Each structure stands twice: as C-alpha cells, then as structure tokens.
C-alpha cells in the first residue's frame, strides 16, 4: 500500500512538471480568461453578476432564529423552570386577559363616556339644483325623463356610498327654471319650492338599504339569480316624512299623486 501511494505521488509530480514546462507560470497568469473565476457564493456570469444555484439559496442573515429549547437540563441555562422562576402568576400557563388589573376597576371603565350614538339617524347624499341644471344643459340628463336616485348615480352626481338615499338641496334655486320631476329620499323646502315654481314636482320615496341596492344595482341580483325585494313600508314615525313607497325596479314614468293619500290613511 505504501509503495502504491509513493508511485501515485511520483506520477502526479511528474505530470505537474511537464505541464509547467509546456506552459510557464508567467504566461498562464498573463493570459486573459473568458470567464471570471468562480466565487465561494456561486458561479459568475460573463457580465460579472453572480448566478443563483440551488446550493446557494438561503435566508438573509438574521432572518431566521433558532428555536429556544426549554427544559433540557441545568447546563442549558433554561432547565427545570424554563426561565420563568419559581411559582407566581407569571410562572403559570394561564395568564390574565389583556386589560385585567388584578380585580380593580380597569381604566376603560374608569374613564367617562362622551357623546352618544343615535341608532335611528339617517345619512343622505346631498345633490344641489345647480348641479342638476348643469347636467341638463350639458346633455347628460334628459329633462323629459323622471329623475330617480339611480339616474343621479348613473350620471355621476351621487357617489358610490349611498347609505340611506339622496337629499335634494336648494343651492342654485334662484336660477332654476327647468320643469323636472324628481324621486328622492328627502328634499329641502327651498328646493321643493323652486322645482314646483318651475312646473316640476318632487316626490319623497322610501327605500330600505336593500331596496336602494336593488334600485341602483339590479344587475347584482340578476347575476346572483335572486329576485328583487318587495317595496318596504316605512316605519310609523317615518310615514310623515315620505310621500310614497319606492318602486322596484327603477321607475321611468312620472309619479302618481294618489299614493300620498294612501300613506296618510295607513
């Protein structure tokens, strides 16, 4: 075995000597190499960028942490009590809930309450007569059609978030002279007087939130394969604030004044 190793070493030394005789060290060092030498991280491309390989993929430094091993004897530093000390509340597994102050009145209850929340409040999107008149002049709205809340939303006078309906306000009522017919949730006195003086009408209609969705987005119900909801009657306290129940789908004809008397009788 020893002789075989000596023979192999002699052959390797002879081959290296022949290589040096054919290619001197100076010519090898000065000869240009087509590619940069491979680095310890990964191979290099002709442009000098390091190429990724499967054996080079690893997390960034500090991205991973070794799991803390508890209860592995005294020599580990976290044996027996696992770093929690002896007894006490912090040594137990069942900790108190967040905000618990040992039984005394917690801070969230000691602080006084300010204001109140009215569950019956309604939020309406405002639309001014001036904006409606400008849309008619630009040809966006047709003065001969019934203007509903769906019409106002389609032309962009009302945004997407229509919570409880639309309220018609009287900004620009002095110059309003178009005989338009509206169906909205609420209307101010100034706006109603201006519309009626111009030969139009304003009908206050009642829709629930589901009814408003069916009014403005009937295609959603068709896509889901659902029927449109039935028109809902207003609450007794709200009956005086509306003239009639909203119709579904979106109406195109002008309102009939008979419905207001039926609501008052109910």
Automatic annotation (TrEMBL):
Molecular-function GO terms, alphabetical: structural constituent of ribosome
One GO term describing the cellular component: mitochondrial large ribosomal subunit
The processes (GO biological process) annotated in the record are: translation
Q: Member of which family?
A: Belongs to the universal ribosomal protein uL15 family.
Q: Where is the composition biased (Polar residues)?
A: 253-266
**Does the keyword field hold Ribosomal protein?**
yes
Query: Which Pfam families does this entry report, sorted A to Z?
Result: Ribosomal_L27A
Q: Which UniProt keywords apply?
A: Ribonucleoprotein, Ribosomal protein
Q: Report if keyword Ribonucleoprotein is assigned.
A: yes
Positions of the UniProt region annotated as Disordered: 61-104, 226-266
Q: Where is the composition biased (Basic residues)?
A: 81-95
Spell out the InterPro entries in the cross-references.
Ribosomal_uL15, Ribosomal_uL15/eL18, Ribosomal_uL15/eL18_sf, Ribosomal_uL15_bac-type
Q: Under what name is this protein listed? A: Large ribosomal subunit protein uL15/eL18 domain-containing protein
**Positions of the Large ribosomal subunit protein uL15/eL18 domain:** 126-203
The domain of life is Eukaryota
